[in-house]
Write a structure and sequence with these properties.
The chain has two domains: about 55 residues, no CATH class; about 35 residues, no CATH class. Helix content is about 15%, strand content about 10%. It is built from three helices and three strands.
Length: about 110
Amino acid sequence: MSRLAPAKRLKNKKGTITFAVRGANTRATQVFLNLRDNLDLDKSGFLPFGRVVEGMDVVEKIYYSYGELPPRGSGPDPEKSEMMGEEYFSRSFARLDKIEKAVVVE
């Protein structure tokens, strides 16, 4: 019988990409990049699944002044973004950056 080694769990450190959650069983497709160490998120179910291995200088230039998602901040509303798509972002968040290409490296 073979056994799999336990997966090494990433911490919410600067440069990790993490699933967003609102509570138990709420993780879906929303992700964010940690622009600083956010180790408190580890206890709250925010699961990093990758990290920037090259180009962190580019990540640090991403426009982040819209802040957190509502209701905590004035960033994009996830429900409106799902309903309206790119039109919502281009009309309401003209300075928002987007990732056009990402490569998964094993």
